[in-house]
Amino acid sequence: ARFGYGRGREVVGAQVWDRALAVVNAAFEPLDAALHHAVPAPHWYLDVIAVEPTGQGRGIGSRLLQAAGARADADGMPIVLLTYQPKSLPLYQRHGYAVVCEGAVAGSEVRGWGMRRDPGT
Q1: pLDDT-derived band of residue 35, with 50, 70 and 90 as boundaries?
Q2: Alpha helices (H) along the chain
Q3: 100 to each of 55, 107, 119, how far by Cα in Å?
Q4: Residue 79: is it exposed, middle or buried by C-beta count within 10 angstroms (0-12/13-18/19+)?
């Protein structure tokens, strides 16, 4: 609801919206499946993390990752994520994430990386 999905569905119609969403999800599914194959055990999944461009370079992203890491560490769980931003790889790696899979989004030149952070790293 926060991202306006319901409103988008209202504006373009349910049939068009649902078909478009299915196409997008199908394009991203192979890398998501590869990540879950690489990390089959229970884990936290960091779905979305972002910092406004004007706030980048101030340590905000690092603090967000540290907070997520502390919560997962308390549960003794690894964290996994997918990123499609090559410039974000060094940030994640500084916080203990390692690439466990990578590939292209189906039908595009967009590359993605599946990453894992073990508890306590």
Answers
A1: very high
A2: 5-12, 14-38, 60-75, 89-94
A3: 29, 22, 16
A4: buried
Residues constituting the chain: 121
| Cβ partners under 8 Å of residue 9, min gap 6 | 17, 18
95 pLDDT higher than 70: yes
Tell me how far apart the alpha carbons of residues 83 and 89 are, in angstroms, rounded to a whole number: 8
- Amino acid letter, residue 11: V
Partners of residue 114 on adjacent β-strands? 82, 101
pLDDT in tens, 55-78: 999 999 999 999 999 999 999 999
List Cβ<8 Å contacts ≥24 apart for 84-87. Answer: 84/110, 84/111, 84/112, 84/113, 86/111, 86/113
Tokens read off for 94: 């500084």
